[in-house]
Predict the 3D structure of the following.
Amino acid sequence: MRAKRFQRAMALRRMTVHKRQDVFSDTWEFDFVEMAMLYEYRVFDWPPIESDSLYALRRCGDSHWEVQLSPDSAEERLREIERDAQTSATMSAEDVSRLRESILKHRDGWRRLDDHMAAQLDTHFKLFIAGYEPVTPDFSLEVLWRRMLALKREKEKRGSLRQVRAA
């Protein structure tokens, strides 16, 4: 019974939206207590692409939601762009500049969620307000993001070691 109450409280506290089209996958996880959002982007193709970003979340008025890229997440995305630029023959300096500008813009300002996502989020938020019982999760979204980042770095490290051994 206690485990079910915990699951119910966590389901109210955190909302997950998953969208998949062909090889592209987007996952948004929102936490209403932390007021944070974890965004995961995956391309299941060759080469596979993985990107995870942590955002601050806020509600402004009725069903108006905004997100802002966290400073740590922005720094990591900037590092990814630099690594990609060094290894990609097709990425121009203009592309790198445009991507950097976009990331800095999202880090320094709030961006409104699209109406469909905001409506889903607001509906779930109202359920959260009406029936949430305080519960402490095993880990915060920031900790989850840091773990995902560590796993990604470890995977990249193993890949580069394999390339060195093959050469």
Observations:
- The mean pLDDT is 91.
- The first helix runs from residue 2 to 13.
